[in-house]
Design brief:
alpha+beta; four-stranded antiparallel sheet; three-stranded antiparallel sheet; about 60% helix; elongated
Length: about 425
């Protein structure tokens, strides 16, 4: 079984010497999953276990363990290769929508030009003295700020976006206009559990429920909130243990998160979990205006081309590009319609979603405010929780066994140390 990439990354970030609690805190993974993952990684990558006198285990890994794993697992080599290939493929997919838009506009207006030229030529050949038969293209004017309805506070946002540094080329901007730039909260759950683990570690492994609540959702009300049922997933994930104070208040301590392989500084943690709002597009205002204008031009051109091709006789007479446009006309019209409809629907969807995100952020902020100004009861709970606070750092001096050396060598070394101590004791007695 290939090792867990999340655990591999956590081991690298922590300096290749870790405990289960270190990895669980860094990654936010379930303690049991972290322990199993470390055992697998140690087995496959040539890691070593170091056992302290207290019975705690530290895992030591070579700095080249990724190279060892890639040489051992074809699946990891394939994943690394596919990541490189996918970056190229995804870029081609992103720019393909802009390329299709440009080709669509070119085909539509080239077909319109050919048809108009033929009609005017036929009219001249018939010698229409009244000047009838001429077909004039309608004039369309597209304001560069037609999309103002996307932004109710248009003036403010226009100035703001002008100051933003744009890193998208035009073809990438079209994809961003159509589909956005991905979920800004894709790693929200990972961030949630990392923050919770960091709060627990920063408080030496002992907390009260109010310290965790600002990072959770759907904590309920009434009975569920009063009896702190929302702490059950946290206890399960990090092997926590509840304790009851003499006043009947619950506090929680997490033994695995109280043991570390090295002295580490407290991690900075936001006072509450804040979800990011969805952006309509990372493209600049000018790029959005240009993409929308080209989309509207494409749609209007497709409609007018359909009017010219209504009877089908022109396409049969001219053939070539016009006949090709006739054959894929509904595809051209459908693409032109979707190009405008998708961003419009997405805008209203984002607006509704951001409202829900704002509501959740507000609720978490309120819970964080309660913690920032604790009442007497909460202060009492937090004081009781400190009785369970501890931070154990396992150093080389604490080790009684390590798989890095042979067991017989360690026993011999241990006997040598014991004899040295006995010799010093006899000397001191004499």
């Amino acid at each position: 079984m290939a090792p867990n990439p999340t655990i591999m990354q956590a081991v690298e970030q922590l300096g290749y010497r870790v405990t289960v609690g270190d990895v669980a805190t860094q990654s936010g993974l379930n303690v049991s999953l972290a322990q199993q993952g470390l055992l697998t990684l140690a087995s496959e990558a040539g890691g070593h276990m170091q056992v302290a006198e207290s019975g705690e285990i530290v895992y030591q890994f070579p700095k080249n363990f990724r190279t060892v794993l890639r040489n051992k697992f074809w699946r990891l080599r394939l994943q690394a290769w596919w990541q490189r290939v996918w970056r190229v493929l995804f870029y081609l997919i992103r720019i393909s929508f802009g390329i299709v838009l440009i080709l669509s506009i070119a085909l539509i207006f080239l077909s319109i030009f050919i048809i108009i030229s033929m009609i005017n030529r036929d009219s001249d050949d018939r010698g229409n003295h009244a000047g009838g038969g001429m077909v004039y293209m309608p004039r369309f004017w597209i304001s560069p700020s037609w999309y103002w309805f996307f932004y109710p506070d248009y003036t403010t946002r226009y100035q703001q976006r002008r100051r933003e540094k744009n890193e998208l080329n035009f073809l990438e901007a079209i994809f961003s206009f159509l589909f956005g730039d991905g979920n800004p909260n894709a790693n929200l759950e990972e961030q949630r559990w990392q923050s919770i683990a960091a709060v627990i570690r920063n408080n030496s492994g002992a907390v009260v429920a109010e310290q965790i609540a600002p990072y959770l959702d759907d904590i309920g009300s009434g009975y569920a909130q009063e009896y702190e049922d929302y702490m059950l997933p946290v206890l399960t994930r990090f092997n926590g243990q509840p304790a009851v104070s003499p006043q009947g208040q619950l506090v929680y301590h997490f033994p695995e998160l109280q043991v570390s392989a090295a002295q580490r500084r407290s991690r900075g943690v936001a006072p509450y979990l804040q979800e990011s709002l969805w952006r309509f597009s990372a493209a600049s205002s000018g790029q959005i205006a240009l993409a929308a204008g080209l989309g509207l031009l494409n749609f209007v051109g497709a409609v007018f081309l359909g009017y010219l091709l209504a009877d089908g006789a022109i396409a049969a007479e001219l053939g070539g590009i016009v006949a090709f446009a006739q054959g894929i006309y509904w595809l051209l019209l459908g693409y032109g319609t979707a190009f405008l409809a998708v961003p419009l629907v997405r805008y209203f969807w984002i607006k509704a979603r951001n409202q829900r995100i704002s509501d959740r952020n507000h609720q978490r902020q309120l819970r964080a405010g309660t913690l920032a100004h604790p009442d007497a009861t909460l202060q009492q709970k937090m004081a009781y929780a400190k009785q369970f606070s501890t931070n154990t750092v396992i150093t080389q001096e604490d080790l009684i066994y390590t798989t890095e050396t042979d067991l017989l060598e360690q026993e011999a070394e241990s006997d040598k140390v014991d004899k040295e101590w006995q010799r010093r004791l006899r000397r001191s007695d004499s």
